[in-house]
């Protein structure tokens, strides 16, 4: 074979092989933009769709009295344990053992005593908090421990302050799910103006932490001359405890958070609302509001002016930071990756939470459930890194206080978008009077962050901190909205937030808006692949044969 013929044969072999590779078919192929038909294909994982309302404890919703504590009705799907509420109001030292055993609270989680001003309620309040890790790696295997889903199938690593608890951290012996007391967000803490309050951090975690009382009236040092401001230079190390002391003179909505490596620890979840209620006679306040936003035993001052009260805590998580505690068990590795390798200036907010959950879980326990012609108090705190533009559909609300300071009547604004800076708190009056200003009428009205990333979950929408304002007539017997079934069915499928299915996966428009799906390979393409592949093989054999013949001759 002449060099010229060899060069041409090699070129044709390479071109034929390349063309065959380009045409390489599979058993089924993704449809193109011009696919003749679409086929809905969901994840092969079984059991992807959850029940929108598991309805585990319907008896918890009803108004009831436990150990003399009156507990308001809850209209939402997933209300708080009323026994937790009773213990939080009276103190774990003042309820019956039967009540305490219906909670996971330790006997000294909240101890109330000494009516110092003689007005019928306790004035010495001792609170004990722990730092709990959720969705962290287990040293015993390739699984997460103390799991807490923020949305279907999503378990980012996070930390929370939690009331001191008893018994197992898990819900039961047959699951890795954390018990209901150990959940995001950190509980709202309520005390009364003038109370002598002692908050003890018992640090059972593997990293140092503090509690900073943000906006709460407290002295710089304790009575013993120790740190009382919760700064990083006075960190509470693993196995140690520290008590912060205060006797707040000013009522209002405040914050508390960890101030050790604040950028990382707050974004890991270590923050909560701290409320100082106005001093009133016989004012037994609900010291812990764990989980769901509704305050089911409001203070005397709130009861005098409002029909209902809700705490709304907004937080965000960076999945890169959250993954640190899921990829290592060695504390030194975690500290290195979190402190020296992670850079918050290059980070992102991927998950946006309202009261510890993202949509659609926010509909279970972050729902503002109310009736017509009511006045509702909202305490709103922004513990995330970015500002919030909170918009409530169908309503305009009035801001009555900012950062715990009452606004004069002349300075109160009525708005349908609330600008809330990081660490800022607003007290808001929501009136459900159908007058065209405060309310446009009954319904199921969305409320959400109007900065669009806040209503997504790692980019998937609807998600994030979206929730609903639901009027009683538009909620079913489980506390779920009646008119949002189709969308909720899609959102409660964990395949949705795993990005394995489109928003319109089912229904009349699936063929138009759903997954392009899989189609049979093109017959002409198969023929062309066969010819190209055969040509490549033929030229290769020809080259080998002629080369062998030339060497032999």
Automatic annotation (TrEMBL):
Keyword annotations for this protein? Answer: Copper, Membrane, Metal-binding, Oxidoreductase, Transmembrane, Transmembrane helix
Q: Which InterPro entries does the protein's record reference? A: Cu-oxidase-like_N, Cu-oxidase_C, Cu-oxidase_fam, Cupredoxin
The keyword Iron is annotated on this UniProt entry: no
One function term, GO molecular function aspect: copper ion binding
Q: Name one Pfam family in it.
A: Cu-oxidase_3
Ranges for the Plastocyanin-like domain?
184-279, 340-451
- Tell me where on the tree of life, at the top rank, the source sits: Bacteria
Transmembrane residue ranges: 7-24, 526-545
Q: What is this protein called?
A: Putative multicopper oxidase
Native organism is: Methylomicrobium album BG8
